[in-house]
Structure formats: structure tokens, C-alpha cells
Design goal:
8 strands, eight-stranded antiparallel β-sheet, alpha+beta, 3-methyladenine DNA Glycosylase, Chain A, single chain, 6 helices
């Protein structure tokens, strides 16, 4: 994937994803985000990460979704906003999870960004620094580098995404947005069950997690 990253660098940095990209259903968006680049400004510079795994949450009829049954609270409000809005929430009271709303206003679907890789060497350097600064990151640097952003919590630490980044219009923002990345063909995508939603009855078995094949 490194060669592809180098070949696509100019395109990724200059071509932002517009509103029409996000105003599709959550399943379509979850697939389409694979290979795209999420960009975030941090205290140490700009981080660009290429998305390698996503999960779709399909709103009112999805028992795995925070908005199942039309649940609308202060926490879930960003899911009801226009596609392209960030939805960042805490799990276990300490780890942030990054999501982006799909579709149109008041249709509360979203995509969880589960895994990513640094898009370039500068991003890798910053992401590693952010991970190593956390007191919980007591592993050797080589181990942290290997698992830099291979989970929702690690990804948010590595990209300095926090609750302060919740409910941001990523189509309009100058500091938190999306660009083009590498092309991912349908045959390169694995489908699997979503993680951590055993409570969701039949919805726990839906194959709504999408991963780029290794």
C-alpha cells in the first residue's frame, strides 16, 4: 500500500470530499470511506490517515445503533445532522470513538471509523508521538508503531481526536476533513460482524463491518 500512497499523495491532499459523498446511506458510506484520507490538525502538525476498516450503524431500525427506535439525546444529536458531521463519543469513560454521519438531516445513520494507517511519514511520526505520550502506552515503540491505529480508541489517540471534535461539519471545516485517497475495488473488501454489540440481538450478526483485505 505504500507505493499507492505515494502515487496518490497529491490527489489526497488537494481534493476534498464534498457533501454529496456523505449524503448516502450508512452502508454505502462505510464501504466508500475505505481508502479515503481523514485529515486532522494536531498540536504537532497535520495528520493524514488512510481508512482501512469501518462499521455502519443504520439508525432507527438498527438495534446496534445509538439511535435505535429514534433515540435522540444530547449525545446522539450529531447523528441526526447532515451527512459529513462528526460524531465523537466516549466509551468506558476514557476512549474516544470517531464516527461520521451519513445521509440527510434527521435520518440518524453513521459510520464508525475503526482502523487507519498513516498516509505519509510525517503523519506516522506525529501519530507515534501522540500514542507514546499517553501514560497507558507503556509498550515498546516498535509495538506501538505496529498497532498505531488498529482500533477506534487507538485511532483517536493517534490523530488527537477528542470530544472537542464532536459535531463538526467536516465538509466545511479547515482543520478536520476528508480527502481522496487510494482506490479500493469491491473484491478487496471483506465483510464481517460488528464488534462489541452482542446485546443487539439479530443485528449483532449483520455483516456491516468492512475491511480492506491484507
Amino acid at each position: 500500500m505504500k507505493m499507492e500512497k505515494m502515487q496518490m499523495a497529491d490527489k489526497a491532499e488537494n481534493r476534498r470530499l464534498g457533501r454529496e459523498f456523505f449524503t448516502v446511506d450508512g452502508l454505502t458510506l462505510a464501504r466508500n470511506l475505505l481508502g479515503k484520507v481523514m485529515v486532522h490538525e494536531t498540536p504537532y502538525g497535520t495528520v493524514r490517515a488512510i481508512i482501512t476498516e469501518t462499521e455502519s450503524y443504520m439508525g432507527i431500525e438498527d438495534k446496534g445503533s445509538h439511535t435505535y427506535g429514534g433515540r435522540r439525546t444530547e449525545r446522539t444529536e450529531p447523528m441526526f445532522h447532515i451527512g459529513g458531521t462528526s460524531y465523537v463519543y466516549l466509551i468506558y469513560g476514557m476512549y474516544s470513538c470517531m464516527n461520521v454521519a451519513a445521509d440527510v438531516v434527521d435520518n440518524p445513520q453513521a459510520v464508525l471509523i475503526r482502523m487507519a494507517e498513516p498516509f505519509d511519514e510525517e503523519s506516522e511520526r506525529i501519530m507515534l508521538r501522540l500514542r507514546m505520550e499517553k501514560k497507558r502506552a507503556r509498550q515498546q515503540e516498535s509495538s506501538v508503531r505496529k498497532h498505531l491505529a488498529d482500533g477506534p480508541g487507538k485511532l483517536c489517540i493517534a490523530m488527537n481526536i477528542t470530544r472537542a471534535d464532536n459535531d463538526i461539519d467536516m465538509v466545511e471545516s479547515d482543520t478536520f476533513y476528508w480527502t481522496e485517497g487510494i482506490e479500493v475495488m469491491p473484491e478487496e473488501i471483506l465483510e464481517g460482524k460488528r464488534i462489541g454489540i452482542d446485546y443487539a440481538e439479530e443485528a449483532a450478526d449483520y455483516l456491516w463491518r468492512f475491511t480492506i483485505k491484507r
